[in-house]
Design a protein that fits this description.
alpha/beta, Rossmann fold, 2 domains, binds NADP nicotinamide-adenine-dinucleotide phosphate, single chain, 5-stranded parallel β-sheet, 5-stranded antiparallel β-sheet, Quinone Oxidoreductase, Chain A, domain 1, 331 residues
Length: 331
C-alpha cells in the first residue's frame, strides 16, 4: 500500500457525532525525516473525551480544527525509522490521530514489549483509561477497607479497572452500568459486590437500597441522573473522583443547575468546611491574629445593636445584608 488514509473533521457535529462529520483523505505515503519514524496503525483508541475535541467550546485542550486529522492515541508498528531507538517491526504507542499511517518524531512514541501483553491493552487496561482509574483512586479516592465505593460506567474502560482496584483495597464496591449483561459481567468477572442497571431500574431507589451505609467514594464517569442519585447518599468526608460526565458530552448546552464538568476541566477542589472539626485552630488563630489586630494590620468592622430584645432583628438583618462587617448585640 503506497497511500495513507486520514479522517479529517469536515464540520462540527450537532449532538451525536457521525461518519458524515468526517472526510477520508487519501495522500501519498509520507516518508520519515531525520529523527522521525513511519508507523502503520494497528489499533486506534476511541475515547469519550474525543467528543470535546469536536466542539469549539472552551476546554482543557485545543479542539480539532475543521480540515485537521482527528486526534487520538493508537498502537502501531514501525515500517521505517530514521531514529536510532526504533527499527522496523517495533510496536509503539503514541498520539497519532485517525489515520492508517503516520510519521512521528521518535520522542513522541513509546516502544512496547510485544511479549508482555496484547498490544491493544496499551490503549485500555494498561493505557490511558487504566491509568486514569489508578490515578483517581490513588490521588483522590484514598479508599479504605470496609468503605462503600460506587463506580459509574462500571464496566467501561476506566470503570472496569477502578472497580477491581477498589475491591483490591478491601472496599464494598457497587457498580452502575447500562443493561443486565453489563451488570452480570461486573459482578461475575470484575468482582463488584452489586451492580445497578441504570437503564432498567429506578436509580434513586436501587442505589439507596444497595448502599444502606451511604457512599464513601464515588468514581464519577457519567454525570446526569446517576450523579443526582449519588448526592443524597454521600457520607461525611466522602470523596468524589470527578473523572468525566459522558452523559452530557453530546448536549449542545450544559444541563441546568450547577454543572460539575468544570470540576473535571479545571481540576477544581471543592471541599466542605465545618470549623468545629478542628478545635485546635481556634487557639492557633487567636495567637496568630491578636498582634495583627493590636497593630491595626488586620482590619475589621462591626455593626453593634443595643439591647437583648433587638437580637431577633439583628439576626434578620444579618441574613438580609443589614450588617456591615461583624453583627453584634451589646447588652
Ligand atoms: N479525567 C480524565 O483524565 C479522564 C481520562 C479518561 C476518561 N475520562 C472520563 O471517564 C469516563 C469513562 O471513560 P471511558 O473511556 O472508560 O468510557 P467507557 O466507560 O468505556 O464508555 C462510556 C460509557 O459511559 C456510559 N454512559 C453513556 N451515556 C450514559 C448516560 N447517559 N448515563 C449513564 N452512563 C452513560 C456507557 O456505559 P453504560 O452502558 O454502562 O451506561 C458507556 O459505555 C468518561 O466520562 C471520560 O470522559 C476522564
Amino acid at each position: 500500500m503506497d497511500k495513507r488514509i486520514s479522517l479529517t473533521l469536515k464540520h462540527r457535529p450537532t449532538g451525536a457525532p457521525s461518519a458524515a462529520d468526517f472526510e477520508a483523505v487519501e495522500q501519498p505515503m509520507p516518508m520519515p525525516g531525520p529523527g522521525e519514524v513511519l508507523t502503520r496503525t494497528l489499533f486506534l483508541s476511541i475515547d469519550p473525551y474525543m467528543r470535546g475535541r469536536l466542539s469549539d467550546r472552551a476546554s482543557y485542550a485545543k479542539p480539532v480544527q475543521i480540515g485537521e486529522v482527528m486526534t487520538g492515541e493508537s498502537v502501531g508498528e514501525v515500517l521505517a525509522s530514521n531514529a536510532p531507538d526504533f527499527v522496523p517491526g517495533d510496536a509503539v504507542v503514541g498520539s497519532r490521530g485517525w489515520q492508517t499511517h503516520s510519521v512521528t518524531p521518535a520522542a513522541a512514541l513509546v516502544k512496547l514489549d510485544r511479549g508482555a501483553a496484547p498490544l491493544s491493552t496499551y490503549l485500555g487496561v494498561l493505557g490511558m483509561p487504566g491509568t486514569t482509574a489508578y490515578s483517581g483512586l490513588t490521588d483522590i479516592g484514598h479508599v479504605r477497607a470496609g468503605e462503600t465505593v460506587v463506580i459509574s460506567a462500571a464496566t467501561g474502560a476506566v470503570g472496569s479497572v477502578a472497580g477491581q482496584l477498589a475491591k483490591r483495597a478491601g472496599a464494598r464496591v457497587i457498580g452502575v452500568a447500562g443493561g443486565a449483561e453489563k451488570c452480570l459481567w461486573a459482578q461475575e468477572a470484575l468482582g463488584y459486590d452489586d451492580c445497578i442497571d441504570h437503564r432498567g431500574m429506578d436509580i434513586d431507589v436501587a442505589l439507596k437500597a444497595t448502599c444502606p451505609d451511604g457512599i464513601d467514594v464515588y468514581f464519577e464517569n457519567v454525570g446526569g441522573a446517576v450523579q443526582a442519585a449519588v448526592w443524597p447518599l454521600l457520607n461525611p468526608h466522602a470523596r468524589m473522583i470527578m473523572c468525566g460526565m459522558v452523559a452530557e458530552y453530546n448536549h449542545q448546552r450544559p444541563a441546568p443547575g450547577p454543572n460539575l464538568m468544570a470540576v473535571v476541566r479545571q481540576r477544581l477542589r471543592i471541599e466542605g468546611l465545618i470549623v468545629s472539626d478542628k478545635p485546635e485552630r481556634f487557639a492557633e488563630w487567636r495567637a496568630l491574629a491578636a498582634p495583627w489586630v493590636a497593630d491595626g494590620s488586620l482590619r475589621y468592622r462591626e455593626t453593634i445593636i443595643d439591647g437583648l430584645e433587638n437580637a431577633p432583628d439583628a439576626l434578620a438583618q444579618v441574613l438580609a445584608g443589614g450588617n456591615f462587617g461583624k453583627m453584634l448585640v451589646r447588652l
